[in-house]
Every structure is written in structure tokens, then in C-alpha cells.
Amino acid sequence: MTAVPLPYRVLDNRPETADTHTIVLRPVGTALPPFSPGQFAMVYAFGVGEIPVSVAGTHHGDLTHTIRGVGAVSRALCAARPGTRVGVRGPFGTGWDLEAAVGRDLLVVAGGLGLAPLRPLVRAAASQPRDHGRLNVLIGARTPGDLLYREEWQDWGRPYCQVTVDQPAPGWRGRVGVVTALLDQAAFAPHRTTAFVCGPEVMIRATARALLHRGVPARHIRVSLERNMHCATGHCGHCQLGPLLLCRDGPVVGYDRAEPLLAVREL
Amino acid sequence: MPSATAPPDTGSAGCVLDRDGMGALVRELRARGRTVIGPTVRDGAIVLAELESAEELPYGWGVELEGGHYRLRRRADAAAFAHSAGPQSWKNFLHPERVRQWTADRGPDGELTVRAEPPAAASFAFLGVRPCDLRAIQIQDRVMIGGPHRDDAYRERRTGAFLVVVECTEPGATCFCVSMGTGPAAQPGYDLALTEVLDETGHRFWARAGTARGAEVLDSLPRRPADEATQDRARRGVAEAAGRMGRTMPPVDLRDLLADTLEARRWDDVAARCLTCGNCTMACPTCFCTTSEDITDLTGDHAERWRRWESCYDLDFTHLPGGSVRTSARSRYRQWLTHKLGTWWDQFDSSGCVGCGRCIVWCPVAIDITEEAHALHQESLADRAGAADGAP
Ligand SMILES: Cc1cc2nc3c(=O)[nH]c(=O)nc-3n(C[C@H](O)[C@H](O)[C@H](O)COP(=O)(O)OP(=O)(O)OC[C@H]3O[C@@H](n4cnc5c(N)ncnc54)[C@H](O)[C@@H]3O)c2cc1C
Ligand code: SF4
Ligand code: SF4
Q1: Mean pLDDT over residues A40-58, rounded?
Q2: Which residues fall within 8 angstroms of residue A127, CB to CB, at 6 or more apart?
Q3: Strands B162-166 and B124-129, how do they pair?
């Protein structure tokens, strides 16, 4: 179902940070086809509008989304109480493609809300430790209050999680600084590593540059990009990034494709 | 594709319709329950509108076209199709400006019911599709129904449409279909192809069927077998038209040209002239971009999703919470041109431009896509020469 939303019911809504909520949606009737980590849904708040949101988790037919309230629709979804009906279309776009990284070291780098689409990837990777080498998860956020899923990090088990914030708050005993600084602490063999990166575009570029510098091949740096999207079906034209229609050819693309495009201002 | 059934063997010679035959064609298509859309004179332009009879065709009218300029003019003869692209294109019918996609209702317990818009039983016959515009329709097919997600409503309208192509014998000063490989001769995809001939022997149309349903319609019309003279005259008219194109594109791979000139100085030059009004995108027969609009009624329990045309020139087009991606006129004109001539290939494996010239005519400041492409080509040649000179 890609053209007309299917009704879903808000099962749970819990605040994640001051402006961000994680909601769990359960199909009222038919469920959408399964989503892969990295893919996104179009979520419709009744009478308000519809926005692209990554899957932050899937469990049977349920969908988990972590949403920051920045405008009309995202705020409406953050405020949706359990029981509220929303419309959902999907699944859309490319996934992280963990399968293609079998046997490789995995390096997950998240900036702020960028951890949301990476969460199902980390969980999948952590649950199949034999399929790949070392798993490192590097998490950056603006302040300690902006860190997502803190109570879950333990459950992720095996991965080696490292966290840093731009601005510390009273009581913060962790690291302070940009997420790329964590790369020096992580153990990975660059040429045998696949990196998964999501966050603000400047953070993605800085991280990818640092990884290239260390010898991770561009095509093994998978980044998730954001552009305006209306239809998610390749018909509205809003999500173009040069040759790419990001709803179809993205949001996850190899940095070999993304780098020359992101280098052109206002492309 | 709709009319993809193998062309029946009607003989490539086809047949000849006279002006009465044209009248019969419109009557026959209407009798088959089709809404016939064709060119007709209205408000000082040749527009596309529903025709009740072939007498509404613009017999005896031509147009004078230039950058930012469109004028109707009387012709010395009675030709019906001796004019080139007007302000609209067939996308106005196949991919209309505003469509409702679905409606949603919220019940007393908050339950949500979403209903897809039932497909309108549109059954168009397009009369007078120019070869460039046939290609434009096929290009929109690739976008709307050629990818992983299909637009069902578009497909309904498209498969229901009967296409009568009329070959071009009178290109306008802004036309460049030859450069784009789309005309002036009809290429496959039509139900019927016509070529208008006017000479001492009379006013007539050489007709060929491209599909079984085209042949069936043709068989029901008063017609005569195509004589050699009519066929020759028709072929010559089309061949001569190819030599009278008002514009050309630079003779290079346009896709490479655009990929290599993203930082050209020419973009600043055109940005100083472009008003970012979006007229070119509205007039272009292949431009497909849209915006979704969600509305509710006064009760607040009934909502609708509408889709309307949108232009990549709008500042909001690339809106993100942190601000729009393409804020400068330079980046927005560049997006349009590189999409039309370059990245369309990456996305849909075809050009996004068919050389109809509409964007040139309907640009209020006469910005000319061919002139811009030539300027980019010249700049890249000059830069390359400069680089070669500077080499040690
Ligand atoms: C592939 C993808 C995945 C995303 N995943 C998440 C996620 O997991 N969590 C999260 O919080 N946010 C995510 N976003 C960003 C989220 O879609 C925007 O924050 C949201 O669209 C803002 O809409 P709004 O109405 O709340 O705000 P406004 O800024 O007021 O937006 C106005 C309108 O712009 C349109 N619009 C379309 N696409 C976008 C876009 N990408 N950004 C902004 N406006 C847009 C919508 O119609 C929206 O109603 C994702 C974006 C993309 C492209
Ligand atoms: S870009 Fe201009 S010339 Fe090309 S198809 Fe569109 S309107 Fe016609
Ligand atoms: S090129 Fe002309 S028609 Fe197109 S946006 Fe600029 S001023 Fe308007």
C-alpha cells in the first residue's frame, strides 16, 4: 500500500527527550509489508498532514518511530495519545543493507535523532554477532538531554557503545566533543569495515571524511540523507539530489554516490 | 503501455481523409463515448479543449512564436494543424493540475476510514498530438507508471486515451524537436497518425493506423486509398519541416554537458534574469512535480488529500525544518535545466525535454533553454581550451 494510508493505532507514546517522542503503531486491520532497517514510512496525522519518518523499530506488524516535534505534523504525532488513529504508507526507500556487510566490521555513527533509523540496524546486528566482525556504535548528541534510548544501550549487549555530547550538563561525566573524535577509540579494520552514518548533513560529511581518511572505502560508508518528500513514490520531485530521487534511490546511499553531490552547494 | 498491441497490417500506405473525413473522425470518436480534445481558437490563443465537431479546429489559423511572445495570425490557407505548441499540453488532461487522491473520515470512536478516490471513467481522444508531445506523454508514462510505484489514476486516464498524432509540417521559431530526436515525423505510440496536405489537389489528411483500435476507427470513416502523390507530398512536408527548425541544441551529449557545468558562471548570468516564476515548468509537457495538500472540512472529521502541480522554482519546494535547500535563483534555474537535460536520464532513462519550445514562449523574460545550453557549451569549451593552454 503505497498510495493510500492504512489505519494504525497508537499503542504507546513515551517522551524520549524534551522535544522527541517514541511512538509505537499497531495496524488496525491489514499491516503494511515488512520494513527493513533504514527504510521509512509516510505517517499521516489526521487532518494535519503527512511526513516521512524512519522506522526506529519493527516487531511483528508494529512500527516504532522516534519523532522530533519541529512543525505541525511532527508535533501532532508527538502529541498523539494511545488509541489515536494515524495513517501509514510504506515501506519506502533503500535500507541499510546489513546483509551486504556479512563478515565485515560494523561501525555505526549517529548524530542526534540520526540514531533513530540506526536503532533497528544495531539491534539486528547485535542479535547476529556471528555474521560480522566487531560492532562499534558511536553516538553524539547536542546535550545529554538529547541522547536517545539511554536505557536500552545495555540491552544492545555486545556492541561497544561510546557516547559524546557537544555541550555537557551538570552531572555529565561522559565525553564532550564531536562524534568523529570517538573514531580514535573504536577498534575496526578500515578496509574491512562497513560504516552506517546518520545525523545532520554536516555531521555526515565530517564523519565520512574522517572515515575516508582512515581508509574505509567510500562505497562501504552508508549514509542516510534527508530531503523534502511529499509522495515517497517517486512522483512529486521534491526529494531530488542531482540524479537521485531520495525516496527511491535513498534515503540510504553509498558515500561514493553521495560525496560528489553533497559537495555542490544547493544542489 | 496502452496502445502497445502490435500494429495491425493496415498497409503502410494508409488512406486519405478529406475535411469531411476529419468531421467524421470526430463524430466517430464521440459516438464511441470519447471526450475529444483538440486544438481550437479561444481567447487569442490556440488552446486544447473539448471539441464537439471538427469545425472547431483552428482551420486557417497559425501562430507567431518567439521568446516571451505568442500571437495568433490568419493564414493564407485553411490548414488546421499548421501551428505549434500552445500554452497547454496533454498533461493538463492526463496529469491534471489538481486531483483528489483520497478522503478520510474519523468516526465517533476515533476510528479512521480512508477511501481511495474512485478512478474517473475518463475516455479521452486526443486529436492533434504533435510528435514531440507524443514523446512527452511517453516520458510522463515513465515517471507516473514506469517505476516501482504506479499512479493508478494516471494509468486509467492514459490507457483510456486514444491518440491521434498529427505530424508537424509547420514548426515554430521556438521549436527544436530535431535536436531532441522527437519529431517532426510521428514515432510509434499513436493509435492514428495523420499528415495534413494542402495543395492544388485539395485539403486532405494522409492517415495511418498504429493500433488495432486505430484501424477499427479508420475503417469506419469515409476515406480513399492513399495515392502516391498524397503520400509524397506528406512525406516531403515533414522532411522540409525538419529543415526549418527555429532552434537547435548544441551537438553534444547534453547529459554530460550538464553534469560537467554545475559550477558554470553562466548560472549567475541566467539567475540575474530569471524571475523564478515557474511558468516554464507549468507549460512544459513533461514537468510532473506536485505538492500534497491535506484539507479538512468544518466538522474536522472529514479530510482530503489533494495533489496539485508544483514548481521546482518555488522556494518551499526544498523546505526542510532548517530552511530550504535551494534558496538562490541560480540553484533553482540550475535544478530545472540539469533535470530536463541531464539527470532525467539517471532517474527515468530518457531526456526530460522534447524540444517543443513552450518554456521559451511562455517565459516572461524570454529565457531560452537552447540559448542557455549553447552558452554552457561555449563556456565549457573555453574552460577546456584555457586549461589546455595553461598546461605545462
Ligand atoms: C527519509 C526521511 C526520514 C525521516 N525520519 C525521521 C525520523 O525518524 N524522525 C523525525 O523526527 N524526523 C524524520 N524525518 C524528518 C521529518 O520528516 C520532518 O521533520 C518533518 O517532515 C517535518 O514536518 P512538520 O510538518 O512537522 O514540520 P514543517 O517543517 O512545518 O513541515 C512542513 C511540511 O513540509 C513537508 N515535508 C516533507 N518532507 C519533509 C522533510 N523531510 N522535512 C521537513 N518537511 C518536510 C511536510 O508536508 C510538512 O508537513 C525524516 C525525513 C526523511 C526525508
Ligand atoms: S523543457 Fe521547454 S522545450 Fe523542453 S519539453 Fe519542456 S517546455 Fe518543451
Ligand atoms: S526561466 Fe522564465 S519562465 Fe522559467 S522561472 Fe525563470 S523567468 Fe519564469
Answers
A1: 97
A2: none
A3: parallel
Tens-digit pLDDT profile for residues B194-253: 999 999 989 999 999 999 999 999 999 999 999 999 999 999 999 999 999 999 999 999
The predicted structure's pLDDT at residue B322? 87
Searching chain B, which residue's CA lies closest to the CA of residue A82? B110
Domain boundaries, chain B: 15-242, 254-388
**Cβ proximity of B281 and B95 under 8 Å:** no
Q: What distance in Å separates the CA atoms of residue B117 and residue A4, rounded to the nearest whole number?
A: 9
Tell the residue number behind the cell numbers 523534502, with chain if given.
Answer: A228
Give pLDDT tens digits for A121-158.
999 999 888 899 999 999 999 999 999 998 888 777 65
| pLDDT (average), residues B263-267 | 97
Name residues whose C-beta falls within 8 Å of residue A31's C-beta, 6 or more positions apart in sequence.
A6, A61
Q: Compare CB distances from B347 to A7, A245, A266 and report the shortest one's residue.
A: A245
Phi/psi of residue A212, nearest 5 degrees = -60, -45
Give B-chain residues touching A46 at CB under 8 angstroms.
104, 106, 112, 303
pLDDT of residue A243 exceeding 60, the answer is yes
- Residues in chain A within 8 Å Cβ distance of B328: 266
Q: What's the B68 CA to ligand 3 centre distance in angstroms?
A: 10
DSSP-based three-state secondary structure for A185: helix
**Range B136-159 average pLDDT:** 95
Domains of chain A listed by start with CATH number: 2-92 (2.40.30.10), 98-261 (3.40.50.80)
Q: Give counts: helices (H), strands (E), chain A.
A: 5, 16
d(CA B161, CA A125): 51
Q: Does A236 belong to an annotated binding site?
A: yes
Residue B256 at interface with chain A, using a CB cutoff of 8 Å = no
For residue B7, cis peptide bond before it (omega within 30 degrees of 0):
no
Write out the three cell numbers for B165.
498524432
For B28, residues 6+ apart whose C-beta sits below 8 A from its C-beta are: B217, B220, B221
Interface predicted TM-score (ipTM) over 0.90: yes
- The sign of the torsion formed by the CA atoms of B193, B199, B204, B208 equals negative
Shortest Cα distance, chain B CAs vs residue A238, angstroms? 6
The tens digit of pLDDT for each residue in B2-52 reads 444 444 444 568 999 999 999 999 999 999 999 999 999 999 999 999 999
Distance from the alpha carbon of residue A71 to the mean position of ligand 1, in angstroms: 8
- Asked if the model's pLDDT at residue A249 lies above 70, the reply is yes
- Stated as kind and residue range, the H or E segment containing B268 is helix B266-273
Exposed / middle / buried, residue A127 (Cβ in 10 Å: 0-12, 13-18, 19+): exposed
> A78 labelled as ligand-binding?
no
Q: Do B294 and A49 touch (CB under 8 A)?
A: yes
pTM score: 0.94
DSSP annotation of B339? I
* Pocket perturbation via mutation, ligand 2, pick of B143, B180, B345, B369 by most ligand atoms within 8 A of CB: B369
The number of the ligand nearest the C-alpha atom of A201 reads: 1
Helix B152-160 vs helix B131-145: crossing angle, to nearest 10 = 150
With contact defined as beta carbons under 8 Å apart, do B142 and B347 qualify? no
- Cα angle for residues B159, B165, B170 (degrees, 5° grid): 150
B233-272 burial, b for 16+ CB within 10 Å, e for fewer? bbeebbeebeeebbbebbeeebbebbbbbbebebbeebbe
C-alpha cell at A231: 509522495
Instruction: Please name which ligand lies nearest the alpha carbon of B366.
Output: 3
Please choose, from the candidates A17, A24, A16, the residue with its C-alpha nearest in 3D space to the C-alpha of residue A43. A24
